[in-house]
Structure prediction request, 723 residues.
Amino acid sequence: MKGPPPEPPDPEGPPLRPLTAFLARLIRSWRLFAFYSTAVMLTGIVSMIFADLLWRTGWTGAKLLLLLVFIVLFLLSAIGCVHGLTGFLLRGTTDPRRITHPPDFRDRNIDSINTAIVFPVYNEHVARVCEGLRATYKSLEATGHLHAFDFFLLSDSNDPDRWVEEECRWYELVRELDALGRIYYRRRILNEGKKSGNISDFLRTWGTRYRYFIVLDADSIMRGDTLVDLVKLMESRRDVGMIQTVPGLVNATSLFGRIQQFSNRLYAPIFITGLNFWAQGVGNYWGHNAIIRTEPFMHCCDLPHLPGRKPFGGQILSHDFVEAALMLKENWQVWFAYDLEGSYEEAPQDMIANAQRDRRWCQGNLQHAMVTLARGLRGTSRIHLLLGILGYLASPLWLAFLLIFNWILLFKEYTGLSDITVGAFTPFLLMTGTQHAFLIFAVCMVVIFLPKILALLDLALDEQRRRAFGGMRKAALSAIAETAFSSLHAPLQMLWHSKFIATILIGAGVHWGPQQRSADGLTWAAAVRAHWGHTTTGVLWGSAVWFIDHPSFWWFAPVAAGMVLSIPLSVLTSRSRYGELARRSGLFLTPEEVDPPAEIAELRERLAMLEESGEGDPHPEHSGLTDAVVDPYANAIHVSLLREKGLNPVFAERLRQLGVGQPAVEQLAKRALAEGPAALDKDERLLLMTDADIMSWLHRQVWLRPTAQLAAAWQSAMRRFAG
Prediction:
């Protein structure tokens, strides 16, 4: 994507701009120093008290290792606590250091500004994607600014059935909304570079037409007013390269999904306000629901391949953090628009699906260890990258802490040696060993749970928000239930993340079979396959701790309980009927449920209609090739899009290198006619479907040949379409 360098930020800034910029950097540096100094100071004090506890009973190498792990874990907890505390203190005030201040940015005229809204998709639920696009489009249309935006469905799908369904649903959407020349569909033939490559390919073709582009995920929705505000914000701040909104979770149906959704909507506001306190104009990008200035992104964010082998070398998987760092490196600011409402996304509906998503993110974040060493990056960018890495390393560190502590207990029990009590180097505490240990435990619990308590207090101080969560009593009960569930879920995440990191480091993969779901959530068999190791670990580990030291078992019991109960916990929280029961009871309510925005309400209504009619159901196997050949409507759309795009030169060269020429494709087509679509594997079907001439020929042959010369699958499809 390299090209001529973009203009420097704010080329027409006022005379005092250098002084203003200096003061802004000074304020940001002071905030960054104050924030992390608080977390480090708190960690230092508590770590000293913990070291004193270990020292009182004799110092060993195992205790030194335990102390080092404790320091890292507590520092991460302290950073989270300071985020919550800072955010709470700022929530009741108007922080002048935020991207949406002053609000006169809304006076900007954007009628002449071209902005692209892109939906990158990869084998997604097509009906859901198109309905989300429809809701966003109609909301934007209601603002009167639709003419300044174009929508793009950017497909990387390599499933033939999804491909054809995407084309047909796109055309239906364009026809129903009268959006020809406003909503575009493009599918890459070679999906190299995954999502970042998809965006790059779009920008190489279309990027120069748009000053900005807004990236939405397949499950994203954004209000029209929010889209317009993002463009106006970019126009008012010519030194800004990216603005990241904070998407709220919506449309959860299962109990697990509703718990996650409630947590996001209740706790995220104070955390993100705290994050923005120190990040300021050197924020981060989360890969979606964000607006990006096109020209500097094309110039600065062409991602390199990292040296070495996987998992750390090769293509950068978690591209978003790195793209933000590269933008900042070239002095373009990145902001969180944390107080801009109207940005939404959806989340996994069960624990296993959530873990599958974490597995994808885990490798990408670990890969950032190489990026943190790159020359020229801002120090704040390195902090963002490092926190992303530590977010996953915290799990094996917690596991290591528990194992080291168990080893110390076992060593003491096995050797029979008594503790040699020495004087504490914090004699002012005047505590027994038990009291000393309980003090550390109490401080850790306060640090972990204080942000949740502050989030509830913040809710109590805002009458309008209280009503949006179903009232204070229901919100408090929901927070208590969420905390109980999180306590059981945390040990499972610890084991999952530790396994992910171990397999990534040795170059192995974690293979997930197709997730078996009943009509209402996970099946028991699927849960047993996913959690039998957790259950076994909980039983054996809990038993070992019990036999080593009875009192220690009760401290360990909450961790063991999460593992032992993992199977029923996973199944029951995946069930939508329990989610609905919680909703009727007033638990885990969110503002978008109590008073849904028009966009969310319409999306839910449309999806319910599709489900009732069966239109949103998965299509039969091989339906993509069958429909594109037999159905005149689907064939016309498919062939027209192929002819408009033309054969990708890179793809044509790849076929030539593989020795696959036109005769080979024709032979595949003849075999498909004689034996049916099932006779071809996925790659062969894709090869046929990429050739416009062959697809036209197949369509004619299916309808003109005697039925005796056609496979039974074609005859069945013809009867269906003819009827």
